[in-house]
Amino acid sequence: MMQKMMQELEALPVSRDSGFYRQALRQRGFEIVDSETTNNQTRFEAEKNNRRIALDVQFARDTGKSTNVDVTSLRGRQRDCLSMSRSQESHQQDRWGNNTVNPALTST
Asked: Which of 34, 52, 71, 76 is deepest in the core (most CB within 10 A)?
């Protein structure tokens, strides 16, 4: 379920302003619990169904439009090992870190 939510967010388009991503999270049922803007990047932390994600969006200085969207699953202070990114250059899914989820993290 978490992977599906992350894939949905990873598919968000680039070349948009910050307000687009805030609205997109809310429209998808996420509650934004924190946001921070530094330099040309905005980080939204949001929750849905007791699952927390971080959406990091980088913006071009000259246009103010997004150039990269990165989605990370958060668990308390630890991050899952799954991170997805969509950038203007590649428009492909990128994975950083391990490409598999630790079964101990997903067992019920």
From this structure: 71
